[in-house]
Amino acid sequence: MRVREHVADMCAGPEGGHLGGAYSATEVLTALYGDVMTVDPARPTAPERDRFVLSKGHAAVGLYAILAESGFLPVEELREYGQPGSRLMGHPVRAVPGVEAATGSLGHGLALGCGFALAARLDGRSSKAFVLMGDGELQEGSVWEAAIGAASLGLENLVAVVDRNSLQLTGPTNEIAAMEPLAERWRSFGWAVREADGHDVGELVRNLGSTPWEPGRPSLLIARTVKGHGVPFLAGQVASHYVTLSERKHTRVRSVLRNAPVSHNTGKDEAR
Known about the structure:
This protein is α/β, with parallel strands linked by helices and about 270 residues long.
């Protein structure tokens, strides 16, 4: 819950932030940094570390929050998000400990993950590369070029996650570009594919912590999520994509997070 609170605080600043996509990915980030990946905040550039690429770089506030909670940077630094001179920008940059690549130009992250995975194999390391993509991002052709390359190279140490919240900036993803059957599409590209409840940390850990699922194949997890999950008056709403929370809405979000368990209900409560 602290990750969501940090995101709300950053989105209440003058720059605002991509709250909806950060909230849909919170449990994925929690599972990866809490239980799955081999990383050490005291040695963020250790050669044997796993690499993580936030391909949906606009959800940087979520990444900053989990990095702070994991010890990569002081929690107090989150207050500097979006301020002049801060290294916590709207999209992540490598000046932030734990950030492997500057991202946000959608469609590039999976190719970066391929490079990290291939480099690990060539160096004889057992480390893995994890990539978190948005589902709207799958409209980029470069994603599928990287998908072909990863399968052709047999990058079994590459793990990709699709944050399948079914919404993007301009509306429902399937109304903009039909994607289903998404799992079968990825399988046809040579990937091992599973689906999971993207808000169940235990289920995410069991799946992401057991890769590769098939020898010689990269792994793709479709995480079924809700945009803005955790705050009923924002959940499932396109309006949660990017927000600048007023003082009143910030207080309301914080109150919901502190006093109610995270549920799977999207909610249709009007955001007042």
